[in-house]
Amino acid sequence: MERVILITGASSGIGKETAKLFQTKNWKVAATMRSPENSEDLSKIADVGCFRLDVTDPGTIKTAIAEVLEKFGAIDAVVNNAGYGLLGPFEAATQEQTERQFQTNVLGLFNVCREIIPYFRDQKGGTIVNISSLGGRVAFPFSSLYTSTKFAVEGFSESLQYELEPFNIRVKLIEPGPIKTDFYGRSQDVARREGLAVYDHRLEPFLEFMEKGGNDAPDGSVVAAAIYDAVTDGTRKLRYPVNTKGLLGLRGLLPDSLFFPLVKRIFLK
Ligand SMILES: NC(=O)c1ccc[n+]([C@@H]2O[C@H](COP(=O)([O-])OP(=O)(O)OC[C@H]3O[C@@H](n4cnc5c(N)ncnc54)[C@H](OP(=O)(O)O)[C@@H]3O)[C@@H](O)[C@H]2O)c1
What we know:
Elements: E1 3-7, H1 13-24, E2 27-33, H2 40-43, E3 48-52, H3 58-72, E4 77-80, E5 86-87, H4 95-123, E6 126-131, H5 144-164, E7 169-176, E8 189-190, H6 200-215, H7 221-232, E9 239-242, H8 247-253, H9 256-267
The structure holds NADP nicotinamide-adenine-dinucleotide phosphate.
């Protein structure tokens, strides 16, 4: 049976690897992105269609879904992958940076769910995969805004799975640790404010540590494999951690009094 997956933020990284993996598994792939004109390589692959979709612009979501249905006839799974990280001290982030982080990672994901849920209900089934993060379960320093978006995605998804269960709609959470993608480069935003140097001696080594962690990490194909599992394993399992480096296990085992010093030792050299 032919199945169709729609992926947001498929221009690079995890989204692009996911598009390629599902295509090799004989799925039809709607690779959605803000600028499909820059994605010639994906659009040349058989059974992959590139569609314009900006998660912060509900009109583009409606249009993309209609175009995908016209081209492929159905949608069986949606991967809410579009997102980026805003790092740095909370007080250095402008209102605009703060809003953009939530508009993309949280409200953007809600926008896509709002459009796809009625369609999945009518179809009597479907799978929603939300890309969270290790940072959706564990908070790291200088990540208060990014972390709070991913904690929001976790709570949203955990609640949603109860209400969508009667309609045969599965909700899945993917929780990647560091993955080598543009997340640590062009997609990253850093909050800095002139005259606010008091954080620099801790912030700069933290940013270097994060960059090195990203460079040394596995690529998006490991996350794509977890997404494939989540979509096809036939279970209602909610959470799929990937490359979390034992931190999730330790978070569950250790009291705050031992876990917080450990996080400081790792992230704040
Ligand atoms: N890499 C990691 O270590 C890591 C770890 C945990 C979680 N994650 C999560 O994984 C997801 C994918 O990130 P990635 O690592 O693959 O980084 P990436 O290569 O930078 O990909 C991010 C994607 O999101 C897209 N995007 C950003 N804003 C968008 C918007 N308003 N509408 C539609 N698309 C938008 C980008 O599109 P453009 O090309 O248009 O900019 C890009 O395709 C994110 O949700 C991220 O939080 C990543």
